[in-house]
Hints:
Blueprint: H1 2-10, E1 15-20, E2 32-39, H2 42-50, E3 55-58, E4 64-66, E5 71-78, E6 85-88, E7 91-95, H3 100-109, H4 125-130, E8 134-135, E9 138-139, E10 144-150, E11 156-160, E12 178-185, H5 191-208, H6 228-234, E13 241-242, E14 245-247, E15 255-257, H7 263-281, E16 290-292
Parallel strand pairs: 2-5, 3-5, 4-16
Antiparallel strand pairs: 1-2, 6-7, 7-12, 8-9, 10-11, 10-12, 13-14, 14-15
The structure holds uridine-diphosphate-2(N-acetylglucosaminyl) butyric acid.
Amino acid sequence: MPELRQALEALGLAVRVGEPIARHGFWRIGGPADFLVEVPDTATLARVRALGAPILVLGKGSNLLVSDAGVRGITVVLGGAFRSSVVENGLVEAGAGLPNTVLLQRLQKAGLGGLAPLAGVPGTIGGAIRMNAGTRLGEISERVHSVELLLADGRVERVDAASLHFAYRRALLPAHAIVTRAWLRVSDEGVDAERAAIAEHLAYRKATQPLELPSCGSVFKNPPGDSAGRLVEAAGLKGTGSGGAQISELHANFIVNRGDATAADVVSLVRRARDTVQERFAVTLEPEVHTAGDWPGPPF
Ligand code: EPU
C-alpha cells in the first residue's frame, strides 16, 4: 500500500488517502477510497493503470452507488486535458471528464446545438458514453461519431460509434477499456427549436422529479413498454424508507438521501422495490444505477 502511494506520487500526482466517496457522488453516499488521484491526460492514465492495482474511474458519481466499505486500489478522477472541448467540421471533440452541463453551455455560447439528449443529465461525457445516457429527448448514441478508448493493454484507439453497439442505457466497450474522449455531432441548425424543447423538458423534470434531494436519478431502467416509476408506485412503495434513504414520494423510480443514508439503506430499498414489483406484476426491473467498491456479495 505505501508503495502504491509512492508510485502514484512518482507520476507527479497529488494522492488523497482515504478520501470519502460521499464527497464526490450525487447520492452523498460511499466509504473511503484507498487512494484518489486526479489524472491530467491519457498518457498519465495509462501509466497509472500500468501499476496493476484495481482502478475505478469516477465521473460525477451521478449514476453510481459506492459501498459503505469504500473502494480499494486507485480511484481516478479525469481532470486537465480530459475537460477540454474543440469544435471542428461539425464535430465537438470532448474529453471524458468534461461535465455534460459545461459542454452544453460552451456549445450554446458558440450558437451550436445537437446534444439535447444530454440536457438535464448531470454526469460527464465519459459516463454518458459508457451508459448511453438519455432522456425523452433522445439518447447520446444518436449523436456519437467516434470514441477514443484506453484499452486494457495500454493502446489508445479511436473507434466508430457502430463498434460500441449502443442500446438502451448501454454501450459494449472492450473489457477494461476506459473512455478518454468522444467526437459528437453538433450543428447550428434548428438551435432555437432545440432550446425550447430543452427548456420544456427541464421544467417537466423539475415538476416530476425530487431534484432538491441527493439521488442518482432513475434507479431502474424502464422495462419494455412500461415505466419503472409507475410499477414501483403501483406496488405501493412510494415514500417507503430504509434508514436515511427513501423511495421518493414524488417519483417512485428515485431513491433520495434524506441526510444520513448509507449504501446499505439504498440497497435494501432497491431490492425491496425489485422483489415487490416481481411478485405483484411478474416484471423484472433491472437497475440503471451502477455499483462500485467493496461489497460482501452482489448488491442487487
Ligand atoms: N410515473 C408514475 N409514478 C411515478 C413516476 C412516474 O406513475 O412515481 C409514470 C408517469 O406518470 C409517466 C411514466 O411513469 O406516465 C414515465 O415517467 P416519467 O415521464 O417521469 O419518465 P421516466 O420514464 O420515469 C425517464 C428517464 C429519466 C428522464 C425522464 C424525462 C429512464 C429510466 N429515465 O424517466 O432519466 O429524466 O424520462 O425525460 O429512462 C435518469 O436516467 O437517471 C433519468 C432521470
